[in-house]
TrEMBL record:
<dbReference type="GO" id="GO:0008360">
    <property type="term" value="P:regulation of cell shape"/>
</dbReference>
<dbReference type="Pfam" id="PF02875">
    <property type="entry name" value="Mur_ligase_C"/>
</dbReference>
<comment type="similarity">
    <text>Belongs to the MurCDEF family.</text>
</comment>
<dbReference type="Pfam" id="PF21799">
    <property type="entry name" value="MurD-like_N"/>
</dbReference>
<dbReference type="InterPro" id="IPR005762">
    <property type="entry name" value="MurD"/>
</dbReference>
<dbReference type="GO" id="GO:0008764">
    <property type="term" value="F:UDP-N-acetylmuramoylalanine-D-glutamate ligase activity"/>
</dbReference>
<dbReference type="GO" id="GO:0051301">
    <property type="term" value="P:cell division"/>
</dbReference>
<dbReference type="InterPro" id="IPR036565">
    <property type="entry name" value="Mur-like_cat_sf"/>
</dbReference>
<comment type="pathway">
    <text>Cell wall biogenesis; peptidoglycan biosynthesis.</text>
</comment>
<protein>
    <recommendedName>
        <fullName>UDP-N-acetylmuramoylalanine--D-glutamate ligase</fullName>
        <ecNumber>6.3.2.9</ecNumber>
    </recommendedName>
</protein>
<keyword id="KW-0436">Ligase</keyword>
<comment type="function">
    <text>Cell wall formation. Catalyzes the addition of glutamate to the nucleotide precursor UDP-N-acetylmuramoyl-L-alanine (UMA).</text>
</comment>
<keyword id="KW-0131">Cell cycle</keyword>
<dbReference type="GO" id="GO:0009252">
    <property type="term" value="P:peptidoglycan biosynthetic process"/>
</dbReference>
<dbReference type="InterPro" id="IPR013221">
    <property type="entry name" value="Mur_ligase_cen"/>
</dbReference>
<dbReference type="InterPro" id="IPR004101">
    <property type="entry name" value="Mur_ligase_C"/>
</dbReference>
<keyword id="KW-0067">ATP-binding</keyword>
Length: 457
């Protein structure tokens, strides 16, 4: 960790806690700043605030009082989830107080370089693939996961040596709060419409994602999805060297899918069928990871072996295993229709039993119809089960079953399945009608899978 004096004796406000806020507050305290933490959760329910208070850090909880800004803060480190429309942030902007996110703080103190990955879909999978390839067969793991993937960048950066690499997943929320952050390699997996409630418009969302490359120079490399015309157009607006990946176009540079195989330039890396996770979206993720791995000097055989054994990120088309000839996949992270469409692209529909349903956000599921045609059966639960059933009937699915939740859905799915079928949880809905998070929903599916094996063994 760099020994910086930037924050010594400076008054800094950390707005919002969770993992990143706690990490930022502790780091700033260590750097000699006068830190005040402000979190909306009441103190008696706020174990994080209690922990920071015990360290001698000032905490203000229960609300975000605008009066706090009268204390003369020179900078605010903001939790990414707090929108800039929050009154205290609007007032801070009016007073010209700089607002950063924790990843910017991490960059300022890190001795290790960054690889930054963002995108609407696939960023967690791509981030994990990159780290696993770089570390494949290595006695000393060189790549360290950081950022939006669950490891606060400012914590990881403190313990990273100069010869290591921070492979960092970055959300649009985090990227809005960078100033000097400069990755040596950056990846944008794709851009679709998302988080409009936070950003206000698609243009603002795209602008936030594009900030990933704002400080990059000719010495750095930006990896972009060549399937997307929008990113091809944006590529003309960066100083960084650009390499594309594509599943639809043959490329002489970068990475592409050609005749069923994954290539880096003219070098064949592996057959697409050898990937450990199914789906065209995972072919895209793998192509992006291959470019980064080659830039990092990884050998083709190491890349192939790593991607062939990659079983997916938990809850993202995660392969759980085979039992009684059936393959089981946990894609609980599919909280919208687009994510389920992408998951289904990796399967033969006539061999799929789909588990779906969840929180009702007011939309219908007609967009799902072309993608679920031909599937063997669909098991539905949650608030949207009747709506999804309407789409299933339009798709001509003959076996449509209703149940209470994920736990009861799996035995029903198993009963409808045969040897060589795939049982796929890909709900196309958020989980909050029944579960506190998609992770909990996915864990319940995994538990149900384990129970089926125990009962029948």
């Amino acid at each position: 960790m760099k020994d910086i004096t930037t924050y010594k004796n400076q008054k800094i406000l950390v707005l919002g806690l969770a993992k990143s806020g706690v990490s930022a507050a502790k780091l700033l305290h260590q750097l000699g700043a006068f830190v005040t933490v402000n979190d909306a959760k009441p103190f008696e329910e706020n174990s994080e605030a209690q922990e920071l208070l015990a360290l001698g850090i000032k905490v203000v909880t229960g609300s975000h009082p605008i009066e706090l800004l009268e204390e003369g803060f020179v900078k605010i480190v903001k939790n990414p989830g707090i929108p800039y429309t929050n009154p205290i942030l609007e007032k801070a902007i009016e007073k010209n107080i700089p607002i950063i996110t924790e990843v910017e703080l991490a960059y300022q103190i890190s001795e290790a370089p960054f690889i930054g990955i963002t995108g609407t879909n696939g960023k967690t999978t791509t981030t994990t693939m990159i780290a696993e390839i770089i570390n494949h067969g290595s006695e000393k793991k060189k790549a360290k996961l950081a950022g939006n993937i669950g490891f606060p960048a400012s914590t990881v950066a403190q313990n990273a040596a100069g010869e290591e690499i921070l492979v960092t997943e970055l959300s649009s929320f985090q990227l809005m709060g960078i100033q000097t952050f400069r990755p040596k390699i950056a990846v944008i997996t794709n851009i679709y419409e998302a988080h409009l409630d936070y950003h206000g418009s698609r243009a603002a969302y795209v602008e936030a994602k594009w900030r990933l490359q704002k400080n990059m120079t000719e010495e750095d490399t930006l990896v972009l999805n060549g399937n997307q015309p929008e990113l091809v157009t944006l590529s003309k607006q960066t100083k960084a060297r650009v390499l594309f990946f594509s599943t639809t176009k043959e490329l002489t540079e970068g990475a592409c899918l050609k005749s069923g195989s994954l290539y880096y330039g003219s070098e064949k890396i592996m057959d697409a069928s050898e990937l450990g996770v199914p789906g065209e979206h995972n072919v895209e993720n793998a192509l992006a990871a291959i470019i980064v791995a080659k830039l990092e000097g990884c050998q083709n055989e190491d890349i192939k072996q790593s991607l062939a054994h990659f079983s997916g990120v938990p809850h993202r088309t995660q392969y759980l295993g085979v039992y009684a000839g059936r393959k089981f996949y946990n894609d609980s992270k599919a909280t919208n229709i687009l994510a389920t469409e992408k998951a289904l692209s990796g399967f033969e529909n006539e061999k799929v039993i789909l588990l779906a349903g969840g929180l009702d956000r007011g939309n219908d599921f007609d967009a799902l119809v072309p993608f679920i045609k031909g599937i063997k059966a669909i098991i539905l639960f949650g608030e949207t089960k009747e709506k999804v059933a309407k789409a299933a009937k339009k798709a001509g699915i003959s076996t449509i079953l209703f149940t209470e939740d994920v736990t009861s859905a799996l035995p029903l799915a198993f009963a409808q399945s045969q040897n060589e079928d795939s049982i796929l949880l890909s709900p196309a809905c958020a989980s909050w009608d029944q579960y506190p998070s998609f992770e909990v929903r996915g864990e319940k599916f995994i538990e149900a899978f384990q129970k089926i094996k125990e009962v029948r063994e």
